[in-house]
Specification:
The structure is a homohexamer of 137-residue chains. With 137 residues, the first copy, chain A, is an alpha+beta fold. Chain A is built from three helices and five strands. Chain A has one domain: Tetrahydropterin Synthase, Chain A. Chain A has a five-stranded mixed beta sheet. The radius of gyration of chain A is 17 Å and the shape is elongated. At the A-B interface, strand 1, strand 2 and strand 3 of A face strand 1, strand 2 and strand 3 of B.
């Protein structure tokens, strides 16, 4: 079993805001992350796929295919977008990095399995100091 | 003459959009950077100050002072903010990285000169691939 | 279960030296790391916390709280300090990176559990080539 | 149990090419990675060793020894080399990053065990976007 | 006058070898960089363009155009290629990083001037320790 | 004229302290950088050399020679050392990053000129946020 990883980046804006709460409560929990017009990040998405190495190719999975899946399922939908407003598959989801990781898993896992490999981990780097990992359960 | 540099970061959203233009023209020039709800970046601001070294301190300028100036004049106004909507000193300015560099110069230069040093360069890293430098003229 | 990570940095000096050994034995084992007046590093501390995502906040744990714990329990005690001389919770401990990871775990784990989450991993980056990870057992 | 990691780099060329296939099939699977005269990378090799901390040294394993093993078993053979042509221990192996990780494991694991520690993971960073990990099974 | 910078990467192989010299002389001057089958790097190319900021766009030059020029004039020719064998515009040129910088200048400068801006600097990062800059004269 | 750059690293400790001042004055100016037992950094030293490209080698200067000069003149003296106590050529010099840059220039410039090239810039990266550059005048 070998694990391969592919990194892609996207630049997006978001706002952490719970519509069920008062402004004061949002401010208390989310602070500046709840500012009305949002803010943004250069997010890095790192996908780990596990599988056996094909003796004909030396590959767990062709990175060309993995890149194409990452672009079609995630990056093309979120890059240069507002994560609260623009992304149908994030509708109704607070776009915290934790929730992004789980939402991206749902889109990436079936597409990777369709290629005969298995998604192992979603890692999102939000800033140089804040990261999230999700292993699907 | 020695040059000292201090890096600070801020996470902000922006949209490149010329209100004098049609949507089609904005799309043609700015592409996805013109999407309606904006996008965002982890910006890095690197300020270069030049001066002589004080023999008592070994410093061109105390980095504690330089950091305080960068925070008070720029970072506190733009971090976790929307650069089109939230920043009084950017009102009426298209928030391209070039224009940010020039606007930041105007705020930082007098404050640094008031400490007896001279601003030499504003560098802004917008993404891992795009950067701007401005030397004041 | 989602894993969140927060990075903080500290600049400290240390010396690897076993007082039970002769100078020659210290030199043989620790080499230049045993030089009498010490040396130093820009350490990076990366803390991983695991937990369930709160549906109200989208957070495993508020990173503002995690940062505050890291500062109060570790960074404020070690930043710009000599790890052999200045840190009460390291008294009698050889400040190797391995031992730092275990000592930091003891301070961080109870404080993180008091917030309803669980410490998963301590990672310390000592130089761009040397790193340590500790999972608590 | 603590995990220590050491990073070393090597600059090498390689070509992904299956001699049992037609040129068209190689092109279809490997694309530009199959170009006749090869291409190259600055590879980063990160080795993770696990073990108990020696109370006399504070070390899982002396990094001087780990570095010496990495140099003697891997880096000295692959740095500034062509991985298809120059490396006896890679003869007959398609030099994909996956296969490099498994081949390096075979050389590093016995040498690390001879020092009383255990190899835990081989990580290879091929580019800033592509990485592989192998845990020995 | 503002300076904008765009980074692109390419992975290539090369060999430093002077055909007018004996093997011993090549070995003495170029060492392992002269190994027969070559080696390789992940090169980073950073292009600096200077110009005035267009008040309509906030741009010195549209980075979409700069990226397209870098791809068409340089990256598409050198990425995943052998710099000694595969690149017509490098024929007869020893592919040292210095010579690459000067050769890339000749291709990029006219294309950038055709867009109304001026090439200011070519920077090539060959490894994490070795870099070259060229300013056109 | 082409500029080549070589990066080397060293891990050292230092303390900013003016012996002519009271403790309170040292604390007021240098803050935590003046703590009695010092602190430390992973310093990066980047040396820029300018010159013409030798048509026989494609080099401004052989990087093997530049590395050897950097090691012999600077790195071997400061790596894993205390900059206040251990380095004869820093005796009587407050080891601020500014002063290190000027002291390193004095040692590196004659050695580089002896090889027929010219030192252009000393850059020291002290932390990920603080840097200094010195051009010799």
């Amino acid at each position: 079993m070998v694990y391969i990883q592919r990194r892609e980046t996207f630049s997006a804006s978001h706002r952490l805001h719970n519509a069920d709460w008062s402004d004061a409560q949002n401010e208390a929990v989310f602070g500046k992350c709840s500012n009305r017009f949002g803010h943004g990040h250069n997010f890095q998405l790192i996908v780990t796929v596990k599988g056996h190495v094909d003796p004909q190719t030396g590959f767990v999975m062709n990175l060309v295919d993995l890149k194409a899946i990452m672009m079609a399922e995630v990056i093309d939908h979120v890059d240069h977008r507002n994560l609260n407003e623009d992304v149908p598959f994030l509708a109704g989801i607070m776009p915290s990095t934790e929730n992004l990781a789980m939402a991206f898993w749902k889109r990436l896992s079936p597409a990777i399995e369709a290629k005969g490999a298995a998604l192992h981990c979603i890692r999102i780097i939000e800033t140089e100091n804040n990261f999230v990992e999700y292993y699907g359960e």
